[in-house]
Amino acid sequence: MRALRFLVPALLTAVAALGGTTVAHAAPAKYVALGDSYAVGVGTWTYDNSSDACRRGPLAYPRLWAAAHPSTTFVEASCSGARTADVLNTQVPKLTADTTLVTIQVGGNDAGFVDVLKQCILTIDDKDCVNRVEQAKNIARTTVSPALATTYAAVRQAAPSAKVIVVGYPRMYKIGGNCGIFGLSDTERTALNSAADVIAEITAARAADAGFTFLDARGTFDGHGICTSTPWLTSLEWSKLDESYHPNTAGHRSGYLAPLTAITG
């Protein structure tokens, strides 16, 4: 009985301690999307504001991911036409220490791929297209590669705890497919696809150096390039060249959102 009297205060103290314990809750998730026209709505024909130079829209893969994760705070910093310098100067500052997820898709504009595509569209001689592609590939190796390394380092510094996913570009064309009278030749298509391979290899290498995850879009878009029966990329639009050669609605949803969700959950 005496022993029981000694145990009662101890038990009461333990119960009081348990009652005062504060349960720790995980901090809310925060996703920041960085990038160029491939990371916004260009190619979907659906925009928040048609006069917005950034061309952001609800059907872009970052917005689709955010809509499927409503408890996650979403910051859209991506903007059409962005180069690595733009990402560094205007987009990386949107990152904060509490950012938990980052996607970044940039590099194509640095290599001048928009000009390459226009050159290949407007030229009559395949050699002009191939030569311009080779120039862009050289720029990618010598200039874009170190620029990506610098950009990724800045992302890591600004968001030290975030999971960072580097999103790649797809190959554009099916070789031998029917693109109609205005379609590029197989030689030109092959050259453009080889440029996509070079930028993907460089991007993957710099992402690995930074400890980031690389989402290789070449595999996911395989079988759905321009000149296929179910393209996930917009083909040549003479009235709106800037809309050409970008992921369409299916490309954003199936080509990008699906593998992004597979990585993040």
From TrEMBL:
The keyword Hydrolase applies. GO terms for biological process: triglyceride catabolic process. GO terms for molecular function: triacylglycerol lipase activity. Disulfide bonds join 54-79, 120-129, 179-227. Transmembrane segments: none annotated. Gene3D superfamilies: SGNH hydrolase. Residues 179-265 form the Glutamine amidotransferase type-2 domain. Residues 1-26 form the signal peptide. PROSITE patterns: GATASE_TYPE_2 (PS51278). Keywords: Disulfide bond, Hydrolase, Signal. It comes from the Bacteria. SUPFAM superfamilies: SGNH hydrolase (SSF52266). InterPro entries: GATase_2_dom, SEST-like, SGNH_hydro, SGNH_hydro_sf. The active site is at residues 37, 246. PANTHER family: LIPASE 2, SGNH HYDROLASE-TYPE ESTERASE DOMAIN-CONTAINING PROTEIN. This is GDSL-like Lipase/Acylhydrolase family protein.
